[in-house]
């Protein structure tokens, strides 16, 4: 009756020890390929047609991913290797080690004075064009991405798994993958609108919890929790996203630095960041993730306990259970 919590704990350990599985066996890569395949038939024009097709793609990818996860869970659970399969699938839904490694790939060239190398490494973290970014802007972009990915890269999948099991975590990752592929303005303005809005909705709670955890972890990076909370509360609305501003503003306050995306937002009230702030941000984010992991494990244990009580109640109310209780009362009489 403690399977969900045990799977989550093992998946966390696997991520820290091994990182990401190869792309050829990565479920998120498969979700991305399915999305790309469906988008090949997307209408080239007509906002309403694109909106309807994008919503249909979103529904199809979510339904197929969730149904597959549910079927796999039921198939492998009775097997000896079922636990390991669930651990691997859950681990594929989040990435902590890979996130920190990507930030380090930006920080190390900056420390060495290799701006072009840092710009190239930044491409794995952000979608913006890094070619014209200076060193402080590259550092800021890396910090923003690490803080934002705290939510959708780890915390939200953990919470989805704790509440709804493996199908919940897979559904969240499928939706987040859709948002990352088509949930932005420009070419995918209407095709990605359904995915973007739904992603905003499901991240409302995780993003705010992530900001709170960053505030609590601010001292790990030499920052002030009080200042981080003030900046998060005052400036989180400055981003176009209703969620990203919370974690970005919180990390800006925790570092006492200004994080800016030219033409979009400016968060924080300190000087621009440098390579040293990326390292500080990594420590703060890891501390926040540790707290989030504990919360998710507790919620998973609670879910396990409720399932245990539900199964026990079902056994007591089954016909055989009723007959046994009647025979017991008769013997007692």
Helix-strand category: mainly alpha
- Would you tell me the overall average pLDDT? 91
How many separate structural domains? 1
Percent in helix: over 70%
Q: Describe the biggest sheet?
A: 2 strands, antiparallel
Number of separate helices:
13
Total strand count, please?
Answer: 2
Terminal CA distance: 35 Å
**Low-confidence blocks of residues:** none
Calculate Rg over CA atoms. 23 Å
Bin the strand percentage. Answer: under 5%
Shape: globular
Helices and strands, in N-to-C order?
A: HHHHHHHHHHHEEHH
Spatial order of the strands forming the largest sheet: 1-2
Summarize the structure.
With 333 residues, the protein is an all-alpha fold.
Structure, described:
- It contains 13 helices and two strands; from the N terminus they run H-H-H-H-H-H-H-H-H-H-H-E-E-H-H.
- The longest helix has 48 residues, at 135-182.
- With 333 residues, the chain is mainly alpha-helical.
- The protein starts with a helix and ends with a helix.
- The chain has one domain.
- Strands 1-2 form a two-stranded antiparallel ribbon.
- The model has no long low-confidence stretch (mean pLDDT 91).
- It has helices at 3-18, 27-39, 47-76, 82-91, 97-111, 115-122, 135-182, 193-202, 204-217, 225-235, 244-255, 275-317, 319-332, and strands at 259-261, 265-267.
């Amino acid at each position: 009756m403690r399977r969900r919590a045990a799977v989550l704990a093992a998946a966390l350990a696997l991520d820290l020890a091994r990182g990401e599985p190869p792309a050829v066996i990565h479920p998120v890569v498969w979700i991305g390929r399915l999305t790309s395949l469906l988008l090949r038939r997307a209408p080239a024009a007509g906002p309403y047609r694109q909106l309807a097709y994008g919503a249909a793609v979103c529904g199809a990818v979510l339904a197929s991913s969730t149904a597959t996860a549910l079927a796999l869970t039921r198939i492998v659970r009775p097997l000896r290797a079922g636990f390991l399969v669930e651990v691997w699938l859950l681990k594929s839904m989040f990435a902590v080690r890979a996130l920190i490694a990507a930030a380090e790939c930006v920080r190390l060239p900056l420390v060495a004075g290799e701006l072009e190398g840092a710009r190239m490494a930044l491409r794995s973290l952000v979608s913006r064009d890094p070619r014209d970014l200076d060193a402080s802007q590259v550092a800021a972009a890396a910090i923003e991405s690490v803080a934002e990915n705290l939510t959708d890269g780890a915390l939200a999948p953990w919470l989805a798994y704790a509440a709804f099991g493996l199908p919940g975590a897979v559904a969240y990752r499928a939706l987040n993958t859709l948002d990352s592929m088509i949930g932005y303005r420009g070419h995918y303005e209407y095709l990605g609108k359904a995915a973007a809005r739904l992603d905003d909705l499901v991240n409302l709670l995780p993003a705010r919890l992530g900001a709170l955890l960053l505030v609590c972890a601010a001292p790990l990076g030499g920052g002030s929790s009080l200042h981080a909370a003030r900046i998060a509360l005052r400036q989180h609305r400055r981003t176009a996203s209703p969620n990203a501003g919370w974690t970005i503003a919180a990390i800006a306050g925790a570092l006492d630095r200004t994080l800016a995306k030219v033409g979009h937002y400016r968060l924080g009230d300190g000087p621009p960041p440098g390579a040293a702030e990326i390292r500080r941000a990594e420590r703060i984010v890891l501390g926040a993730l540790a707290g989030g992991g504990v919360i998710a494990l507790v919620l998973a244990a609670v879910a396990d306990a409720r399932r245990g009580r539900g199964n026990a109640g079902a056994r007591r109310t089954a016909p055989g259970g009723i007959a046994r209780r009647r025979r017991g009362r008769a013997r007692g009489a």
